[in-house]
Amino acid sequence: MSENLIHLETDVLVVGAGGAGMYAAIAAARNGARVLLLDKSLIGRGGATIMAQMTVAVAVAEQEPDHWTHHLADTLTAGRGLCDEGLAAILCGEGPDRIREMDEWGVRWTREGNHLKQVMAPGHQIPRCVFVDILNTGPAVARTLRTRLARTDGITRVSNLSVTSLTTHEGRVTGAVALDLDEGRPVTIAAGAVVLAAGGLTRLYQRNSASVNMGGDSYALALAAGADLIDMEFVQFFPIGHLAPRLVGMDPIMWDPFRYKLGGRLLNGNREEFIENYGATDSGTYTAPRDITSYAIVKEAEAGRASPNGGAYLSFEHLDEKTLREAFGPVIDRLAANGIDLTKGPVEVAPIAHYHMGGIRVTDEMRTTVEGLYAAGEAVGGANGANRLSGNAITEALVFGERAGRFAAKSAPKPIWNSAWAQTGIDEIENLAQADSQPSGPTFGTLFRELQNLLWEDVGLLRTGENLDRALTRIREMKQYDLPALRPRDVGSFALGIQEWFELRAALITAEAITVAAIGRTESRGAHQREDIPHTDETQTHNQCLRYSDGELTLDTTPVRHVAFDRATLGAAQ
C-alpha cells in the first residue's frame, strides 16, 4: 500500500477543528502561513465548542464596572492555588479582544440597550458572562468561525482525516501520519509547525457531556512525541447533569443557566437544601463552585438522602409559568414535549464528566516542550488549576487558539521531510488494514465501555488509593494484552474499525496518565477528591508533570508559576 501514499505539505498543521482549532487556523493564515486544518469528523462540527449552550466569561465591563484582573482573581480562586498565573492572565486579559473580534465577525452576542448583556455565573463576583441565547452560544460561535474560515485565504480544510502519530526529527516535530477514513490508507503530512487542538478526554467516563471525539487524542499524541503533560488528575464533573426523567434532543448540562438565572433550588431526597453543609454558600442562587456542588450531591446520596434515581432534585416549583417563559421562551415547550413541567415538579440531576483542567504543558506562546509543537483549547493544561471557573471554556478556546496559530505561523520553518520519519506510523495503519478479522476476540465497544466504567467507578469524582491502584493495573493490562488482540471488524472503504483501534490506544494512554497523576496527588483539592485523604495538604501546592522516559510514564512535580501582579488589583470589582 505504501507506494500509493498521499503526501501533503503545509507551514502549519492544525489537528482538530472545534473552536480552538478553527481560531488557530485563522490566526496562522492571517500571519502569512499556509494552513492545513484537519478533523476526523466534519470541520467545525465536532468538539466541545459547538455543544456549549451557555455563557462565555469575559471582562468587557459593559454590564457594570469590571476589569480583567477581577476576572483573573475569580479564576485563581476557583483553581485552588494551582493555576499557571501567566496562562490564566492571558486567558482573562485577552478574552475581551477575542469576544469583540467575534462580534465584528457576526456572532451576535445578546445586547441590552447599547451594550453587551452580561449575566452572573457560579464563582464570579459580578455579572460578567456574555452569550448569544441561553441555549445556543456554542453553535453560534462555531458557525461564525466556520464562516470566517471560508473567507480566509491560505487555509485548506480536510474532514475525515485522523492523525494517528506525529513525526519528529532531532527533537523537533516535522509533521504527522494520518488515517484517511474514507479509504483506510495512511496519509503523510510535512509541516513546519503543528497545533494540537483535538479537545479533552471526558468521553472516557461512563457518564459524560462530551462529543464522540473527546477521547484524549491530543494528550496521547503529545506524550508519544515527547511533550510534557500537566495536572492530568483534574477532571471536572458538572454537578447538575440531567438524570431523570428521560430527556430527548436536549443537552444534559442545560440546567446551569436555568439555575443561576432563576435561582433553582438544589434539594436532596428529603427536599432539603444541603450545599451549606459542605462549606459553601448557595441558598438557591447557585453561587457554589462546581467541585463543591458535585461532591455534596454524591455525599448526600452516600448518606441515603438521594433522589429516586440516585442524584438530587432541582426545583423551580417556586416560579410560575409566566416567569419561566419570560426567561426561556420556547425551551419551555421543548421540555413539555419531554413531559417536563417545571411548575409542577422537580427534575433529577447528578454529576457528569464535563471538562479537563489538565493537559499539555505549554508556555505563554502555547509552545510545548517539543520544538515546533503547539497546543490550544482544552488540550492545554495549567490555566484553570484544580477547578475551572464557569464560563472560561470558550474564552480559553478562542484566546489560546488565536495565540497558538499566531506563534506557530511566526516560528514555522520551511517544512522538511524524510519518509523514514513516518515509517512506524505508516506500518501501524497498513498492518491493521491487512490484519485478519477475529470475530471471537475482544471488540472495541466492549473494551471501551469497560474503560469508561472503570474510570467512572475508580478514577471518578471520589477516589481512594486502593481504587486508583486497581484501575491502573487493569488499564495497563488492557494496553499490554487487549489492545494488541483487538482487530478491526470493518476493514474496507470506510475505515471505522481501524480508527477505533487508534481511539482505544489514545484512550488507554490518557487513562493511564489520569490515574498515575491521581495516585501521585495524596490530598483532596478541587476536582480531585481522595476519600482516604480528605484534607488539602498545602505542601502539595505544586503542579505534576508527566512524560515518557525510556518508554515508561514518569511523574514529577514542578512549582506553580506565579506572575508578579500588583496583588492589590486582584480583588473585588469596584
Question: Could you explain how this protein is built, in words?
Answer:
This protein is of the alpha/beta class and 574 residues long. α1 (19-30) links the parallel β1 and β2. It has helices spanning 19-30, 68-78, 85-104, 137-150, 217-225, 255-262, 290-302, 321-328, 331-337, 392-411, 423-434, 444-458, 465-485, 496-520; strands spanning 6-15, 35-38, 56-57, 111-112, 115-116, 129-130, 155-158, 161-169, 172-180, 185-196, 229-230, 235-244, 265-267, 312-315, 347-356, 359-360, 373-375, 462-463, 529-530, 542-549, 552-559. α13 (465-485) runs antiparallel to α14 (496-520). The model has no long low-confidence stretch (mean pLDDT 90).
Radius of gyration: 23 Å
Uncertain regions: pLDDT < 50 for 5+ in a row? none
How large a portion of the residues is in β-strands, by DSSP E? 15-25%
| Helix content class | 25-40%
Give the tally of β-strands: 21
For the sheet with most strands, the description reads: 7 strands, mixed
Which keywords apply here?
single chain, 574 residues, four-stranded antiparallel β-sheet, globular
Fold blueprint:
Elements: E1 6-15, H1 19-30, E2 35-38, E3 56-57, H2 68-78, H3 85-104, E4 111-112, E5 115-116, E6 129-130, H4 137-150, E7 155-158, E8 161-169, E9 172-180, E10 185-196, H5 217-225, E11 229-230, E12 235-244, H6 255-262, E13 265-267, H7 290-302, E14 312-315, H8 321-328, H9 331-337, E15 347-356, E16 359-360, E17 373-375, H10 392-411, H11 423-434, H12 444-458, E18 462-463, H13 465-485, H14 496-520, E19 529-530, E20 542-549, E21 552-559
Parallel strand pairs: 1-2, 1-10, 2-7, 10-17, 18-19
Antiparallel strand pairs: 3-6, 4-5, 8-9, 9-10, 11-16, 11-20, 12-15, 13-14, 14-15, 20-21
Helix pairs in contact: 1-4, 1-10, 2-3, 3-10, 5-14, 12-13, 12-14, 13-14
